[in-house]
């Protein structure tokens, strides 16, 4: 795979970056999580996504909200879901960004997410077996996620 540039050209010495390429998760879930965690501190976002994995808190679905049921506990919005698989990928990305920040000499307790972007990746062709020896073609979707965090002063 070729080297891919980040979509946001942020420069500075108090930044750390991370990306996930071709994660086999739902693009809609990844985009909604990216919208939700943008601007939050890394520790706060990680704690919330751990609660999503445990089905305690929901992610508000604001863009892809057709036929999305109401969920208890959402502030300012009514519809949401519990995207567990996508949340686990984001938690892995948070760990990677935290390690990159630690390697750069940043304080990992003061990290704030300044840029996060989730884009549709390639589609892999596959087949779903059906009755009587038939098969139905199916596209497996992937997602590319990139994140930039900054060390904030107290």
Question: What distinguishing features does this structure have?
Answer:
single chain, 154 residues, alpha+beta, three-stranded antiparallel β-sheet, two-stranded antiparallel sheet, globular
Can you walk through the features of this model?
The chain has three helices and five strands, in the order βααββαββ. With 154 residues, the chain is α+β, with helices and mostly antiparallel strands. A three-stranded antiparallel beta sheet has the order 1-5-4, covered by helices on one side. The protein has a two-stranded antiparallel ribbon with strand order 2-3.
What's the order of the H and E elements?
Answer: EHHEEHEE
Choose one word for the global shape. Answer: globular
Please outline the major beta sheet: 3 strands, antiparallel
Count every helix, treating DSSP H or I runs of 4 or more residues as helices: 3
Walk across the major sheet and give the strand order.
1-5-4
End-to-end distance, in Å? 40 Å
Number of strands: 5
Backbone structural class:
alpha+beta
**pLDDT < 50 runs, ≥5 residues:** none
Gyration radius, rounded: 17 Å
* Strand percentage: 25-35%
Mean pLDDT: 93
Helix content: 25-40%
């Amino acid at each position: 795979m070729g080297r891919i540039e980040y979509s946001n050209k942020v420069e500075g010495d108090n930044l750390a970056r991370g990306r996930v390429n071709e994660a086999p998760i739902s693009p809609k879930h990844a985009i909604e999580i990216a919208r939700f965690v943008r601007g939050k501190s890394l520790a706060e976002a990680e704690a919330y996504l751990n609660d999503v994995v445990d089905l305690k808190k929901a992610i508000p679905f604001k863009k892809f909200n057709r036929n999305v049921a109401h969920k208890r506990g959402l502030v300012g919005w009514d519809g949401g879901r519990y995207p567990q698989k996508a949340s686990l990928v984001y938690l892995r990305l948070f760990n990677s960004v935290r390690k990159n920040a630690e390697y750069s000499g940043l304080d990992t307790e003061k990290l704030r997410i300044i840029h996060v972007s989730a884009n549709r990746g390639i589609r892999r062709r596959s087949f779903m077996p059906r009755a009587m020896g038939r098969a139905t073609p199916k596209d497996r979707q992937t997602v590319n996620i990139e994140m930039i965090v900054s060390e904030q002063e107290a």
